[in-house]
Amino acid sequence: MTQRTLTIIKPDSVENGNVGNIIAHLEREGFRIVAARSLRLTQAQAGAFYAVHRERPFYTSLVAYMTSGPVWVMCLERADAVHYLRAVMGATNPADAAEGTIRAAYGTSIERNAIHGSDSAENAAIEVAFFFAASDLV
Ligand code: GDP
Fold first, then answer.
1. Domain 2-40+71-136 falls under CATH 3.30.70.141
2. How is the chain split into domains, by residue range?
3. Is 111 a pocket residue for ligand 1 (Cβ < 6 Å)?
4. Helix, strand or coil, per DSSP, at residue 38
5. Residue 102, class by beta-carbon neighbours within 10 Å (0-12 exposed, 13-18 middle, 19+ buried)?
6. CA 33–ligand 1 middle distance (angstroms)
7. C-alpha span between 30 and 81 (Å, rounded)
8. What is the residue with the minimal CA distance to atom 25 of ligand 1?
9. Ligand 1 within 6 A of 10 CB?
10. Which of 51, 82, 114, 120 has its CA 20 to 30 A from that of 126?
11. Is 60 near ligand 1, meaning CB less than 6 Å away?
12. pTM exceeding the 0.90 threshold for the entire prediction
């Protein structure tokens, strides 16, 4: 079933010049880009986006990192998009990510791990709506 998900190409990827490589990787894997834009997250936006992690020891550091520079947010479409993107991304820690995954190729630490992908269909809908209006989704 065709499904939509939300990805963020994180600040380390933008800083390291890997945006094009990551988009090419996603297109090669059959994702269609439904909406895309670059932005710099505010403290409030990053805090709200990662609110589920607010009790975790790495929350402050994660928010600081995610606001440290521009990101690219994209709504992606594909069969089984949510699970498929998680597989294409690889494990949270790039050191544990399978060969050929985006995090294995471009991530540099458990925090600076190149890319975000929604972890469920429910969160995908919430996260797409966090960044895009219905009229942006083409
Ligand atoms: P994801 O779904 O694979 O992105 O992982 P999580 O939802 O568990 O964590 C969200 C993000 O927080 C990750 O993508 C990392 O950028 C960061 N993160 C996760 N675990 C750690 C950790 O143990 N230490 C630090 N510094 N950052 C972490």
1. yes
2. 2-40+71-136
3. yes
4. strand
5. buried
6. 24
7. 9
8. 111
9. no
10. 114
11. no
12. yes
Contact 5, 124 (CB under 8 A): yes
User: Could you tell me where the DSSP H helices lie in the chain?
Assistant: 11-15, 19-28, 43-49, 59-66, 81-89, 102-106, 121-131
Residue to substitute in 5, 13, 62, 116 for testing ligand 1 pocket (most ligand atoms within 8 angstroms of CB): 62
> Tens of pLDDT along the chain (138 residues)?
899 999 999 999 999 999 999 999 999 999 999 999 999 999 999 999 999 999 999 999 999 999 999 999 999 999 999 999 999 999 999 999 999 999 999 999 999 999 999 999 999 999 999 999 999 999
Residues found in the chain: 138
Alpha carbon distance 8, 73 (integer Å): 4
CA angle 82-84-85, nearest 5°? 70
83 belongs to the catalytic site: no
Distances (CA, A) of 75 to 31, 54, 59: 10, 25, 24
